[in-house]
Amino acid sequence: MERAETPLLEVRHLSTNFVTDEGVFRAVEDLSFQLRRGEFLGLVGESGCGKTTAMLSVLRLLPAAGRIVSGEVLLEGEDILKLDAAEMRRMRWRKMSIIFQGAMNALNPVRNVGDQIAEALVLHDMAPSRRRAAARVGELLELVGIDADRADQFPHQYSGGMRQRAMIAMALACSPQVVIADEPTTALDVMIQAQILELLERLQRELGLSVILVTHDLSVVAEVCHDVLVMYGGVLAEYATVDEIYNEPLHPYTRLLLEAFPDLSRPDERMISIPGQPPRLNDLPAGCRFAPRCPMVIDRCRLEPPPVRQVRPGRWATCHRIDEAGT
Amino acid sequence: MITPPPEPPSRDAPTASAQFKQRSLRMRQDLAGMLAQLRRSPLGVVGAIMLGLALIAATFAPWLAPYDPEQSIHVTIEDIYARPSAEHILGTDDGGKDVLSAFIFGSRVSLLVGFSASLISMFIGGAVGLVAGFYGGRIGNALMRLTDIFLVIPDLPLMIVIVAMVGPSLWNIILVIGILGWTGTARMVRAQALSLKERQFVLRARALGAGNFHILRRHIFPLVLPLMVANTVLVISLSILSESTLSFLGLGDPTTLSWGGMLNFAFTRGAISARAWWALVAPGLGIVWVVLACTLVGNTLEEAFNPRLQSHHLQGEDKMIASPSHIQAEG
Amino acid sequence: MQRRDYLIKKTAWSILTIVFVLILNFFLFRILPGDPTTAIAKDPRLTAEARQALQVRFGLDRPLLLNLEGGSLFDSQFFAYVTRLAQADLGISFNFNRPVADLLGERLLNTVLLVMGGQLLSIVLGVGLGLISAWKSRTAFDVGAITFSLAAWSLPTFWLGIILLILGSSYLGLPTAGRETVGMDYAGWWDQWRDIGRHLLLPTITFTIVLLGEYMLIMRSSVLEILSEDYILTAKAKGLSHLQVLWGHALRNALLPVVTLIALNLGFTVSGAIQVETVFSWPGLGSMIFDAVRRQDYPVLQGAFLLIAVSVVLANLVADLIYSVLDPRVKSA
To answer: I want to staple B251 with a disulfide (CB 3.0 to 4.6 A). Which of A182, B246, B266, B271 is the partner?
Structure first.
């Protein structure tokens, strides 16, 4: 697969806070990454590491307490953080769409599925007539493996996996450049997970879709992603291609993550868990955010937060101890 | 095919946005928490002050009222519906008596009936709710059906019919209002009892051999009580409205004069054509004052139990992209 | 669940409630000390024969609920009462000496006129205000709207009526009582309805204001809950504007629980109607109750209560029906 020259989506030094009565939560700090045409980026990290917040920031869909305090989000070269509300609404879904985590409630239970998909088409002037809209809805549903006749049904008449697929169909309705899939397979059983991943892969092949896949599941990432961004405690821990991450993880957290996953080929190995708790984002320690739990921590880590360093072109990590090679 | 890995450890870590959502849920759901909520809310404070003033007026009525409403006086035609003057700050009523004094003493009846009736309602509603929620089963279902029936039946007509038949004494009125006012409390208490029943400390107590009644008394009831208190304050406002309506319709206790009763006399004895607005406005304002006070306080107290939604999806867009001044202001 | 099952369940429930109301009504007028028929029949000044005759006449010699003495099981006061009800016999008014059913029938239309107008207006306004209030939650508008609604809810309906009566008649020359101007000659049907309209104005406004507060608060909390749901965020992500989100997603969903809650609050409506009709002397069921109380006309009181209670139960059933039509989750198996 050829790598296009200019990235489709580029996020530079994005920082997002939540302002509450209990202080300011620094949920995302200095996050930068790129997404190229036709590529899948895996955004990995445990619950609470800021992945979803980062994605909501990119789409400007943060809850009322959220503040994007710095950074740029360049879609095809244009900083969408600078768009006014009307321009932003036009851009939404048309250029960039999102499949939310836990699609159970992401569809309105009182309107039928086809209606809700058609709503997006009509809004963005992509359906000159009702018939065209209905036809397109049928196409989209078939694309994700749902019978087109079921467009008139309501979300509660769909199974969980079908609802997720309907969400994907809806996300593709306006043929966006970028699709953000936030934990699309969590809360679904294994078989459905596999189906959905297959679907995403097929869409990438057939439509040249560019996807940011947010997940905590490294195996999913290994299967479909080109690049991987590992987040911890709101910051970028490591950012590289999927091969580099798996074969040569640089950040201690990445290494622990890889070890924590049981390997079928070695069933007798002890399961390792990462001790400790993630940091409280309103009460961050000085120094590296991972220091309290890091097996390779030294004094410097506790005093000075490590910078996001480019180790090689296209290879970033945030750790003081990168230079010391080790597996 | 790679097997699905377990979720990486620290599964219980809340997401960044969820971390701060916990705040309102952590609000203490007991009496202290309620009072704290009351202090925090401006409307609640206003309500409390209003209620306090009313209670003071009722308690110290004999000292505050310029005239004694019980005292029979000799009146001439000029004394009837006399306009407000230095002698009678709120004028006189259809019998030549001072409106202000009647007003101050009237607070006693309204407040007495309101509080007593709602105590009865709280008692019945609490009992029904606790039994239905805690014991559940057929008794619980039957009780809830009964509650639903009483909810549907319109209260005022029923109250009118009963009071008209048994006679409008103060005690009768209190009983009738009390016996018809428990449905809301019952539903709410039941819901809470249901959820408390499954909690850890109850299961633990059972494991230690505690009987049902013991659990109810020592564990469940103390937790249900604050919510009942909050709800009862709202029931007080409903009771006062009921009493004044019954009195206005002529079903008040003839030996005492409540605000509703004052309005009944004024209305049926020509205050409107006499343009005696003072006889009509004052008692009504009294009712509004007390009812509004209880409503404000009750709503505020109940808020301590509703996890207040921080914001909804259509809010906060203007602040999302922070400008440098914003960042400075909010830290 | 199946819509059919849902409706069957609700209908059975309504029937049960109505039966309860019938029994309640029956006992109220047999057991409470104020029952005139028993009082008359027990009057010590009557001779024993006269008393006996009266008892038989009023059916008071029959057993109360079920006849276990011999003959038909249903030869009791209660079933006599039920039989009479089935024939729309609600007794004879003490004061007017006419069948209660006739009297109620005459007044029913007037009450419906008043209630329909007020309900419609207050629902439309209440729903609108509630929606905007929730949308603009915690802004000045919201706080103001809440305060207004709380105040409106706290006003005794009859007092608001009195105040509006005074203001309306003094400053706007609006009529103060009745449905039509006494002794007026009407040029035609339109003329008459204009007169009625003028008489209807203040009562309707009073009624509307009181209900408005209640409905606004109900709608507001319903919408607030909905605006926090995930599908609202999806709608926003699709690029819909606030108005489009409110109209296409929030409104429909919020109205569902509101339909049920309005039905549940019909007791409030009834209470308001009684008070408004009394204050404005509007010749409906409510003022009839007021008169009946004053004149101790118990058959009328009993009949009116029955009619109103049964109407409310039926109205709730209708609301359940509407709900089942609106909510697609109630349709499929």
So the answer is: B246
DSSP per residue, A110-134: TS-HHHHHHHHHHHTT--SSHHHHH
A109 vs C: CB within 8 A: yes
d(CA A225, CA A248): 16
pLDDT, tens digit (0-9, with 9 covering 90-100), for B70-100:
777 777 777 778 888 877 888 888 888 888 8
Long-range pairs for B230-233: beta carbons < 8 A, 24 or more residues apart: B230/B34, B230/B298, B230/B301, B230/B302, B230/B304, B230/B305, B231/B122, B231/B125, B231/B184, B231/B185, B231/B188, B231/B298, B231/B302, B232/B118, B232/B119, B232/B121, B232/B122, B232/B185, B232/B298, B233/B294, B233/B297, B233/B298, B233/B301
* Residue C205, number of CB atoms within 10 A of its CB: 19
Q: What is the CA radius of gyration of chain B?
A: 26
Gap from B259 CA to chain C (nearest CA, Å): 11
- Name which of A65, A190, A278 is nearest B20 (Cβ-Cβ): A65
Lowest mean pLDDT among A170-174, B12-16, B288-292, C230-234: B12-16
Tokens coding B225: 């009580």
Name the H helices within B200-323: 200-207, 212-215, 221-246, 259-268, 277-303
Structure tokens at B5: 């890995």
Q: Nearest Cβ partner of A98 from C235, C237, C328?
A: C237
Partners of A227 in beta bridges: A41, A241
Q: Are strands A96-99 and A178-182 parallel, antiparallel or unpaired?
A: parallel
DSSP type of residue B92: B
Q: pLDDT tens digits, residue range B199-240?
A: 877 788 878 877 777 777 777 888 888 888 888 999 999 999
Complex ipTM: 0.90
User: Which residue has 């359906």 as its token pair?
Assistant: A127
Shortest Cα distance from A130 to chain B (angstroms)? 29
Q: With contacts defined as CB-CB under 8 Å, which chain C residues touch B43? A: 147
Position B21 pLDDT exceeds 60: no
Residue-by-residue DSSP string for A36-58: -TT-EEEEE--TTSSHHHHHHHH
CA angle B34, B36, B38 (to 5 degrees): 70
Cβ(B303)–Cβ(B41) under 8 Å? yes
Considering the entire predicted model, what is its pTM?
Answer: 0.84
Q: Side chain identity at B40, as an amino acid letter?
A: R
E strand or H helix at A240, and its extent?
strand A235-241
Nearest to residue C217, comparing CAs of C117, C120, C312, C125?
C125
Q: For residue C80, what are its two tokens?
A: 């006599």
